[in-house]
Write a structure and sequence with these properties.
- The chain is of the alpha+beta class and 410 residues long.
- The protein has eleven helices and 18 strands.
- The chain has helices spanning 10-16, 29-46, 57-63, 93-99, 115-125, 141-153, 167-172, 176-198, 206-219, 281-299, 308-320; strands at residues 50-54, 75-79, 85-89, 106-109, 130-135, 157-162, 228-233, 254-260, 262-263, 266-267, 270-275, 337-339, 346-350, 363-366, 370-372, 376-378, 382-387, 390-393.
- The strands form six sheets. Strands 4-3-2-1-5-6 form a six-stranded mixed β-sheet, sandwiched between helices. Strands 7-8-11 form a three-stranded antiparallel β-sheet, with helices on one face. It has a three-stranded antiparallel β-sheet with strand order 14-17-18.
- Helix 6 (141-153) links the parallel strand 5 (130-135) and strand 6 (157-162).
- The protein starts with 9 loop residues before the first helix and ends in a 17-residue tail after the last strand.
């Protein structure tokens, strides 16, 4: 039997799970003010007069307001100079005021009024009568189209552009505190992954494993249960995002578990693959190849190197073993990794052809899944952050197929 797999129960492991939330502080108001200052400097650099923050992660990142997106326009206008100004349905204004820690002006629109016309009015009151408006890249089309139409109707001279050059640019370059928050969440999830491996027994279902993962994250003090929890056994492990039906564990199955949850707003995301029982020569070969591809991708990371180089390095190892080429299966059918932060997937993306230079503070995953349909798949996913010298892991990679959790504290 693979070391660290089996031998316990969900009840025992949940009892062992300890809260870790209070071991690290959340993002403070002062840090959000620094983010706004940084964004405004960036806006001046790229020629943006104001930025619309929809009710998305971007709104929370800069202002601390966690509202979410609905069919009604709600969010904030961040000018290149000055405090953010909020736009919301009139019946939500008082609730929104209770959530504000930065800025105090809120414009409310009644149900039979146009929020987009109000948006243009708010801009003019801020002395922004023309220029480039960066629109939240997470905003829905109806918001963008409504702003465009209202600006045209008012005769306003605005140019709309996605906010990525400001919002994503800022969010991709994490501060030391953000890096610490991400690492804390990742290490907690890795411990839960090790616990999930210990509850495995022949006959357990993937839904039982997913239920354990959710309950363990809640008990550990994450903001919620798992945002996603993928548990796959045997041939189903070849499908990167799983299959729409549960499986039952059998001796010799490859097990793939991919899960994550938010801690103080920052998301964990760890994948481990291992065998329930003794690995076959084929399973060992592919697992070791995956491990080598992950290591090669990590070695490619340093400031100034294009993000696509991470994918190139991992894919070269896999193709060198005769798999692929490119995205062909058997092989690696998707990009090697993605950025992580308040969203599970965010800029930058480690995909072929991405010329964006890596910068200190960028954080992301390395997960070059090897898929062999009809047999099994292997994914090892850990996250790194870029340092002046190269890269550092948030979590240590899995040591071996025989002892996949040997470096995880008990």
């Amino acid at each position: 039997m693979t070391k660290g797999v089996g031998g316990s129960t969900a009840e025992i492991e949940l009892e062992r799970t300890r809260p870790v939330r209070e071991r690290i502080e959340p993002i403070s108001r002062d840090e959000r003010l620094e983010r706004i200052e940084r964004a405004q400097a960036r806006m001046a650099e790229v020629g943006v007069a104001a930025m619309w923050l929809d009710g998305s992660t971007n709104l929370e990142y800069f202002t601390g307001v966690r509202h979410g997106q609905t069919e009604r326009m709600i969010g904030a206008i961040l000018p290149a100079k000055g405090e953010p100004v909020y736009v919301a349905p009139a019946f939500e204004v008082e609730k929104l005021r209770t959530m504000l820690t930065i800025g105090e002006t809120v414009h409310g629109w009644e149900e039979d009024e146009s929020p987009y016309a109000l948006f243009v009015t708010a801009l003019r009151e801020m002395q922004i009568a023309r220029g480039t408006l960066a629109i939240d890249e997470q905003a829905r089309f109806f918001v963008v189209d409504g702003i465009r139409a209202a600006a045209e109707a008012a005769g306003a001279d605005y140019r709309l552009t996605p906010s990525g050059s400001v919002a994503a640019w800022c969010r991709a370059r994490k501060t030391p505190h953000e890096i610490a928050l991400i690492g804390h969440a990742m290490r907690a999830t890795l411990g839960i992954q090790a616990a999930a491996a210990r509850i495995l027994r022949e006959g357990i279902t993937t839904t039982e494993v997913q239920d354990f993962l959710d309950r363990a994250h809640r008990k550990a003090g994450f903001d919620s249960g798992c945002r996603f929890a993928i548990a796959l056994f045997g041939e189903a492990s070849a499908y990167p995002h799983g299959v729409p039906h549960p499986q039952v564990l059998r001796e010799g199955d490859m097990v793939l578990v991919d899960c994550g949850a938010p801690m103080h707003g920052y998301v964990s995301d760890i994948t481990r693959s291992y065998v329930f029982g003794e690995p076959t020569a084929r399973q060992r070969e592919i697992w070791n190849l995956e491990h080598a591809a992950q290591a090669a991708a990590f070695a490619a990371i340093r400031p100034g190197v294009p993000c696509g180089a991470v994918d190139d390095a991992a894919r070269a190892v896999i193709a060198g073993a005769g798999l692929g080429p490119g995205y062909a299966v058997p092989g690696l059918p998707h990009r090697t990794g993605h950025g992580v932060g308040m969203d599970g997937h965010e800029e930058p993306y480690f995909v072929k052809g991405n010329r964006l230079p890596m910068a200190v503070g960028m954080t992301g995953s390395i997960e070059p899944t090897i898929c062999i349909y009809g047999e099994f798949g292997v994914r090892l996913e850990d996250h790194f952050h870029v340092t002046p010298e190269g890269a550092a892991w948030h979590t240590p990679p899995s040591p071996s197929i025989d002892d996949p959790f040997g470096n995880v504290p008990g």
